[in-house]
User: What shape does this take?
Amino acid sequence: MYSFTAPKSKGQMLATELKIRRNKIRVLMQQKKIDAAIITCNVNLLYTCGQIVSGYLYLSVDGADHLFIKRPNNLMGESIHPIRKVEQIKTFLDQNNIPTPQSVMLEAEELPYTEYMRIAALFPTADIVNGTPLIHEARSIKTPIEIGLFQEAAAAHVRAYQQIPSIYHRGMTDRAFSIEIEHLMRLEGSLGIFRIFGRSMEIFMGSVLTGDNATQPSPYDFALGGQGADPSLPVGFNGSKLKEGQTVMVDIGGNFNGYICDMSRVFSIGKIKEEAYAAHQVCLAVQDKIAALAKPGAICQELYHTAIEMVKKSGFTAYFMGMEQQAKFIGHGIGLEINESPVIAPRITTELQPGMVFALEPKIVLPQIGPVGIENSWVVTNTGVEKLTHCEESILPL
Amino acid sequence: MYSFTAPKSKGQMLATELKIRRNKIRVLMQQKKIDAAIITCNVNLLYTCGQIVSGYLYLSVDGADHLFIKRPNNLMGESIHPIRKVEQIKTFLDQNNIPTPQSVMLEAEELPYTEYMRIAALFPTADIVNGTPLIHEARSIKTPIEIGLFQEAAAAHVRAYQQIPSIYHRGMTDRAFSIEIEHLMRLEGSLGIFRIFGRSMEIFMGSVLTGDNATQPSPYDFALGGQGADPSLPVGFNGSKLKEGQTVMVDIGGNFNGYICDMSRVFSIGKIKEEAYAAHQVCLAVQDKIAALAKPGAICQELYHTAIEMVKKSGFTAYFMGMEQQAKFIGHGIGLEINESPVIAPRITTELQPGMVFALEPKIVLPQIGPVGIENSWVVTNTGVEKLTHCEESILPL
Assistant: This one.
């Protein structure tokens, strides 16, 4: 059982916490014989420095780290050095007789090509290594403080979702419904911003899908798509009325402190067909089954296949995780970004480990009705998993 | 004088419009002797294809283009080809006897290093060229349809801002005030999402700054900073009360159709010092002066220096564009992203051209009072500039 005290203030990131996080990266660097990392992408700086700066963390495998900052101009500290351009890092290392690393890790899956080349050019004799998978691996095992932040986020997320019925009125569109839920989330403290790994996925605060719009494929690899309100953002609501006999699924990201909690709930408008309740029940049963099997050592692809087998027996395979275009996962790690490790999907051989946090989202889309199913956020404990998002899971009438 | 009819439906992007846009890129490719471009970043696909897909536009200098799509799976057309992985582009070119290009342009400032290398590997004998500046140049001159979309966005932006006084109540925090303005923007049709070029800048929908929080530097290169509500998003409001004698500046992005209109307005709480009105007047005078000088052929850095000279004479130099950390620009191009070309800043020798759209934002931050100044969006016409954002510009009492 995890039992954590969240830090007194969200801004108060303890030096020891940052040391733990950096050491997780260092251990992996040691295994791969990497001498130094240059970390500059926002989420990775947030992870290793407790705040976002425009700058570079020079993380050395032996622990002598330096933070080089372009902006803001008001941060000071023993190992903090103001710079104007990245080349000054090399000048600093040379002037301080810090040995040139033989192997340097850069965020190769995050840095744009031109920027990567510019940083790599500082170390012409070094092997340049892709650090993204390694940092992701470190980030995938949350510390107690990170799990505490997730618990805080989950509580706020639940408080907002519990107020959803209060903002509904008859004749509303999915768009109006979404706007009022976003507003509830903001009032509960949501930071709004929705961080996603990779250059291609985009969404505003999350998605609200009703009726057949939930069957619409999107360019983005979310569990469900939706046509969206405009070709410039082809995902989520499309202005459909919330109609009698249909369902509406709310899946708005819960970023209250940097950690993005993930939770979906389904509401019904008027009387809906029995089939919807049956399909919803299948999703809840999948959730229960996976939650029972998920524990340290459980293998992601096996969890996925177990879920798929259950859905197959239920007869809902053609509607599982989308219709016209089906998502090929049932869960995903969450953290500072919405799509972290582990991914519960075919061919993913990752073993669950204590401290991993993931969203599990078995969902079924029924033509003419809409989406049903569930999504909760879970933390892997020493013996199993614990739910973070405690909120009514049945289809709630609006 | 521009006079445009916006497209009947936002989704209805005409083939001729896309042809115009692609041809603008082709002309630049011809000049640089580039045979083909592979375009895959969201805003560039939106620009060239009228929609975002997960896929790749193979744009050939001779006009035989092909769109290769991974997602969504429901798009069809003569030159649309479903693929699973980028390598299938090369297979397609080979199978259709399309000559291998000798020079290929990739989005080198946008594509992550690993992805760039994977695409570049398809053309081992070709010169691989950075296409980002060239696409930016094409995008910087808006078509009449794009300007029409800006006019639509500006009108909606103004409608939302005009309602700001109605949501204010005494004792409100900057955060509560921001949330209600965001809500107004969403109700007027804002898509919410705020696209920024580059990996390092982030913001939710925009910023609301009051009192001394407006003096706080941020890691991001916006005109003003603000501490932010959380270390994970260090920009904008920080929970300060809107206090008697202070100002509050609203600078929320106006993305109603993909094109991000930019506008800031200042409000006063109770009675504020005369100094604030004087400083505001300086900003309005700078705006008037620059608007009078801005026309085709005007050079960005000269406009900037003219503004700086005016501010110097006014005595507000130490407070112009921030205090502890001052932004080094007074305006920036806008389009599908908030930070496009031209940038009105020192050392920028870009000449204004008809069809460019930019935000001009002279702002002054006064200690203990807060920010004053103005921001409007402007389009360059054949003879000068026209304001897009028509909305009261004085400091409005709340």
Observations:
- The radius of gyration of chain B is 22 Å.
